[in-house]
Amino acid sequence: MANMLGDDLKGLLNERQIDTPVARVVRALSGHGAVSTSQIARTTGLARSTVSTILGDLRRSALVVEVETRSPGLGRPALAHSLNPEAGTSVGVLLGLREVRIILADVAHNVISDVSMPFERDYAPDRVIRSVKHTIDNLYKEHSLPFSNLLGVGFAVSGPISPAGRIMPGSMLPNWVGVDLRALFEPVLQKPIFADNESHCAALAEMMWGAAIDVEDFVLFKLDLGVGGAIVANGRILTGAAGTAGEFGHIVHDPQGPLCRCGNRGCLELYCGGSAITDLAEKRLRRTTSLAEVVKGALAGDIGYRRLIEDAGEVAGRGLAMVGTILNPPLFVISGGLAEAGEILLAPLKTSYERYTLTKSQSTSDGFAPRFVVGRFLDNDNTMGAVGLVLRHHGRLT
Amino acid sequence: MANMLGDDLKGLLNERQIDTPVARVVRALSGHGAVSTSQIARTTGLARSTVSTILGDLRRSALVVEVETRSPGLGRPALAHSLNPEAGTSVGVLLGLREVRIILADVAHNVISDVSMPFERDYAPDRVIRSVKHTIDNLYKEHSLPFSNLLGVGFAVSGPISPAGRIMPGSMLPNWVGVDLRALFEPVLQKPIFADNESHCAALAEMMWGAAIDVEDFVLFKLDLGVGGAIVANGRILTGAAGTAGEFGHIVHDPQGPLCRCGNRGCLELYCGGSAITDLAEKRLRRTTSLAEVVKGALAGDIGYRRLIEDAGEVAGRGLAMVGTILNPPLFVISGGLAEAGEILLAPLKTSYERYTLTKSQSTSDGFAPRFVVGRFLDNDNTMGAVGLVLRHHGRLT
After folding, report:
1. Pfam families, from UniProt (chains A, B) (predicted)?
2. Is residue A303 less than 8 Å (CB to CB) from chain B?
């Protein structure tokens, strides 16, 4: 039963050329989780009556199930539709700086498992292939799930990825530069492979389940050890010609500044990235520390740590002001480990944004100034986004 | 006959909620001019056979005509389809710095008339309303066209426009700030009103007929008296929350630089805009001149004028390098009066772009470096784009 369902679903989700109304409804369900008939009609552009008929057929063939959703507050639970969780699963893999993390989820957007494997820094591809394959096999055994219903594997990578799936220079994974992700993983996993860089995946997670649900245009700004981000326009994540759209960490902050690993001088990341912060803490405050400890210390009142985060916020706001002048988005989602500092980071960031950007909230009375919110997934946004790649069919490598 | 056609066309083009296959085909024809069956199938996502059937029906009702198109070179002319030129017309209006320009075109994308009316600088709205109405009426009389078949009027404005059609602070037309374009023109013209800022319109013209045909992602960079631009992502022009997306002239070039009219310091426009260039020519070279004369002089070998343009190119390239780092587009269309200088501008611009941007052509061997081309419409891109607003149904004010 589950296998037959899986075959139906694969056909409808993976064959991009089939632009039938049924396939559009199934893709909307896959991309959005539990949704109402009206939401599906809005997303697909189909008439409500057409959507109802299709949902009826899909329920009869067990591809779709009815679920109750409850909005915050009082009121009756609303009826929504979701793909049958038994119809398929999706795996997201983070190729991180020092870990490989794997999340297994079903097509109804339930997380079944979330495992992290530590790796030494600068790990090489060959060891990862075996670990990933082994871990995925075990997860399917452990949860008694049919591997045949795995719809695809999404990869979130610390570094830019070309549209064809090759890891580009500038990646935080030096041993992976030039690697073709599909050529590496498809023969082993025998499943469709999806990939995008980890900040783009983070944006997808915030769009699907986090701080930017139903927001068609926003910018994700990620302040972690490195600085990166993503641009979402008309509901789609921009990848860029070489996969480097949203690399805000390499906006030139000072053209006479220190040399950056990217080959430019004075990049934003050198002033407000987590590595710059811990370096300074070590040099000036004589404390060997991690980014998480700096944030924790600042929140607990340590004035040295607090100042480091405030100064990072000031510089970050200047860089973001350029992004605002260029893109004028209605929403910034501030993400990454540094965002855990909350207002200690956000207050100076917003002040310098306002000072250096074109459209100032002082001069626009009608709500045109952007909102700044902290992301919902500060810990596992990238891996959740890798799951989302498969569910939203973004970054499919062919 | 023409009137009946016009009514049919209006229904299919203007009612956004009707997402029928027929409406999709008609919109593809309106947006693209003369196109083949396969191109329509690609644009609409409909099956080729469905498109053929629909085109047959539309030809029988005279809404569509067959035309021959000839690609450059040898070979038989290809058969394409276009909307019947008698089925409708569209008007584009430029509200420029010192002129109001009006282009009348039919739905087959033929320009019927192109008139320019000089206005004194800082002209006020009330005089323009009457002129526009009067000129449009006369054009329809002169060409014996039924006014009833006018599908809409598009406005290209020197300055940002809010999504609701209000002219925003920062406009080059100080007397128009706060003006609601729809409230102003709809009662007089009694037609659907479309509007966007002139650089966004310029991008539309380059997409429809110019240097970026069939390019889904590009950046238009306009170097004229002011500096502006537009971002096209997935085939759509980004407007931004306050209408200021693409205002590249206000990227901060030097945070300690001179005050800009926007309220920031050291904006890019103050270093590479045409006004900055003619100001310097006057102060340092002691010559009162226009941007066109500077460009003409430089092309003729004047070393002072040449240096002014080269220096502007260097600064412009730095600003564009930030746009490249943030967006990573595959194509830059360089537009505006300064682009007439060709390589005198482009050579230093590309050199400094390469120096300051993240994805350098030196480090990417696989064609990921962006192309730079000069726009096709350096003179009337904005007014042509205003016509395009109506044909592409972009920027409709409701």
Report:
1. MarR_2, ROK
2. no
Report domain extents, chain A. Answer: 2-86, 89-203, 211-374
A238 in reach of chain B (CB within 8 A):
yes
Question: Considering CB atoms only, which of B236, B327, B359 is closest to A234?
Answer: B236
Closest by CA to A219, choosing from A233, A202, A231, is: A231
A positions 316-345 inside 8 Å of B (CB): 318, 321-323, 325-330
Residue in B343, B109, B66, B104 with CA at minimum distance from that of residue B213: B109
Query: What's the gap in Å between the CA of B252 and the closest CA on chain A?
Result: 7
The answer to whether B247 contacts A328, with C-beta atoms less than 8 Å apart, is yes
pLDDT single digits (tens) B46-84: 888 999 999 999 998 888 999 887 665 566 667 899 999
CATH topology of domain A2-86: Arc Repressor Mutant, subunit A (1.10.10)
Please, what's the b/e burial string for B331-369 (b: 16 or more CB within 10 A of its CB; e: otherwise)?
A: bbbbbbbbbbbeebbbebbbebbbbbbbbbeeebeeebb
Q: Which residue does chain B place closest to A260, by CA atoms?
A: B358
Q: Is domain A211-374 in CATH 3.30.420.40, yes or no?
A: yes
Distance CA A115, CA A138 (A): 11
Decide if B234 and A231 are in contact by the 8 Å CB cutoff: no
Give the class (CATH, top level) of A89-203. alpha beta
Nearest Cα neighbor of B296 from B282, B279, B309 is B309
Rounded to the nearest 5 degrees, what angle is found at the Cα of A85, between the Cα atoms of A83 and A90? 95
Residues of B in contact with A46 (CB under 8 A): 19
Residue A42, number of CB atoms within 10 A of its CB: 15
In sequence order, the β-bridge partners of residue B4 are none
ipTM of this complex prediction, to 2 decimal places: 0.90
Whether residue B368 and residue A19 make contact (CB cut-off 8 A), yes or no, is: no
Residue A395 C-alpha from the chain's centroid? 12
**pLDDT digit string (tens) for A166-207?**
998 777 788 998 999 999 999 999 999 999 999 999 999 999
Beta bridge partners of B65: B82
> How open is the CA angle B121-B125-B130, to the nearest 5 degrees?
110
CB-facing half-sphere around the CA of B127: CA atoms within 13 A: 12
How many contacts does A have with B, using Cβ atoms within 8 A?
Answer: 147
Residue entry with tokens 């050291």: B266
- The C-alpha angle A228, A231, A235, rounded to 5 degrees, equals 145
- Name the nearest CA neighbour of A356 among A327, A307, A317, A394: A317
Give the span between the Cα atoms of B38 and A101, in whole angstroms. Answer: 44
Q: Does A217 contact B at CB distance below 8 Å?
A: yes
User: Does B211-374 match B90-203 at the fold level?
Assistant: yes
* d(C-alpha A143, C-alpha A201), whole Å: 26
How far is the C-alpha of B26 from the C-alpha of B22, rounded, in Å? 6
Contact (Cβ atoms closer than 8 angstroms) between residue A304 and residue A281: yes
| Domain formed by B90-203, architecture | 2-Layer Sandwich (3.30)
% residues pLDDT > 70 (chain B): 94
Which of A177, A196, A358 is the best mutation test for B, with the most CBs of B within 10 A?
A358
Residue B102 distance to chain A (closest CA, Å): 29
Residue B215 structure tokens: 């390019």
pLDDT digits (tens, 9 = 90+) for A254-304: 999 999 988 999 999 999 999 999 999 999 888 888 999 999 999 999 999
More confident residue, A137 or A44: A137
Q: Nearest-CA distance from A251 to chain B in Å? A: 6
Q: Rounded to an integer, what is the distance from CA B283 to the centroid of its chain? A: 33
Within 107-166 of A, beta carbons closer than 8 Å to B belong to: 162
Are A326 and B247 an interchain contact pair (Cβ–Cβ within 8 Å)? yes
Residues of A in contact with B263 (CB under 8 A): 360, 363
